[in-house]
Amino acid sequence: MNRIIALAAAAALSLAAVPFATPALATTIIKAGHGTQTAHPTHIALQKFAEIVAEKSKGDLKIEIYPDRQLGEEREMVEGLQLGTVDMAVVSTGPLVAFVPALGTVDLPFLFKSSEHAYKVLDGEVGQDLLAKFQDRGIVGLAWWENGWRSLTSKKEVKSPADLKGMKLRTMQNPVHIAAFKELGASPIPMVWGEVFTSLSQGVIDAQENPVTIVYSNSLWEVQKYMTLTRHVYGPHLVLFSQQVWDRLTPAQQTILKEALIEATTFQRQTSARLETEQLKLLADKGMIVEQVDITPFQEATANTASAFKNIDPAVVAKIKAAAN
Question: Where are the alpha helices (DSSP H) in 41-155?
Answer without folding.
Answer: 41-57, 74-83, 115-122, 125-132
